[in-house]
């Protein structure tokens, strides 16, 4: 299985970049993991939130294939403990999902078309985090999931 994380806009803070890179390197031991960064839209001051979401949706769809299993990171999605999330990833591997794609949306969330395409929605928390912080938290959780699945001592219950 391959896991892809699609994110909108580049990460600007070095401490987040360093943290994400740390976990991406660690993940290479467990799974084929990649990140796709879609450049932030330019000149958004003249766009409504809906127009911006539609433009972002067009860019997201260019990165997807028909066989991708798409999971949106969305505040209204299902919440998991780390162990439950590991089990959820394991179920996708057992179902022979070839490309598991997680998407972090833009500042206004996702366009309706993206919600319709998604197979699932998950939430990291009921709290709101910056899109840049979510990248670090989420990559760490994917790493944590694989250490749980391998029975390694990274996660403590």
Assembly type of the chains comes to single chain
**CATH class group:** Alpha Beta
CATH topology: Alpha/beta knot
Label the CATH architecture: 3-Layer(aba) Sandwich
Order of helices and strands: EHEHEHEHEH
Provide the domain count. Answer: 1
Output the CATH homologous superfamily.
SPOUT methyltransferase, trefoil knot domain
Number of H/I helices: 5
Low-confidence stretches: none
Could you give the distance between the termini? Answer: 27 Å
Number of strands: 5
Overall geometry comes to: globular
Helix content: 40-55%
Mean pLDDT over the full residue set: 94
* Class per helix and strand makeup: alpha/beta
GO molecular function, one term: rRNA (pseudouridine-N3-)-methyltransferase activity
Subunit structure: Homodimer.
Main location: cytoplasm
Catalytic activity: pseudouridine(1915) in 23S rRNA + S-adenosyl-L-methionine = N(3)-methylpseudouridine(1915) in 23S rRNA + S-adenosyl-L-homocysteine + H(+)
Task: Write up this protein.
Helix 1 packs parallel to helix 5 and helix 3 crosses helix 5. The chain has 157 residues and is of the alpha/beta class. It starts with a strand and ends in an 8-residue tail after the last helix. It has one domain: Alpha/beta knot (3-Layer(aba) Sandwich). Homodimer. One of its GO terms (molecular function) is rRNA (pseudouridine-N3-)-methyltransferase activity.
